[in-house]
């Protein structure tokens, strides 16, 4: 069974580690790392282990950005020099990698992919005064230290948080699907899914006629779905990952349940349609941070990625691509990693392949999301959505 992101919220098992490091959060006593003739970009990726599919996809996106930037002359004449290490999909190893990258003089670190690995790495970058952009780490509280209050000055991300997704799902269900009654069916074994579900419950003004759960690795959902027969509702809201949600949608359609299904960015994988089957993947809506229909910039990224790697880019590769460009923009004129961090914290209206974004006071990204509709397993429409 595959472990997943927070998008997959890999559990923040590193809490003990944070305490052991004695880091409540905040800034650092370090003077940071100096930027020399090159700008050193550290990679802290899951290149092996349970979530290596995410890590390798994100490395591809980041590599493509580095190649483009260097081909265009670099940043103020300085080339990006990559220092890459594998955290083996282990939270503790990610912390070790962060330390190693800082020791090697990294001026900024891109990664890790997961929230758990990001949490364990953050005390290390805080202490060293080296900014870290974890492109897809969505867990809400990553921006704070172990006290839950002090801002982690050197932690940044390129995607929206779990709480935001729940609000957007509620908004779309109400305004676009006109759903006055919904069934909530979510993964109770995932912090990510539970967080999205909780936010949806708090935001939705309609009636939740039934709330059901499943767990990662489940494959038979017949009993739960059969309970929906005869109930009156307008849509099924399904916080979870493609591995289970694709199967749920297939089994629901096989039972004759044709109601709209609305999900978070955990649906965003070609494997969702493979599991749901093209016939089953109809009247399905999901949030994503990237679509080739989002902009001409997104389409160009798609074409360059396919040419470079011979495969379709994912949301994760797009987020890591944007993260490198965010770092490069912030490195312009910087003499140290601290200068780079200060510029990154002030980033406004940055136009990436995943949309226009700004960094807020808590180092979270303010950006729009996309809602993709699937019919017969293919994208039939894309809408932009922002929280009201």
From TrEMBL:
GO-annotated biological processes: amino acid transport
Record has Transport as a keyword: yes
Domain of life: Bacteria
Family: Belongs to the leucine-binding protein family.
Protein's name according to its UniProt entry: Leucine-binding protein domain-containing protein
Domain Leucine-binding protein, chain residue ranges per copy: 39-377
Organism: Streptococcus agalactiae serotype III (strain NEM316)
PROSITE patterns: PROKAR_LIPOPROTEIN
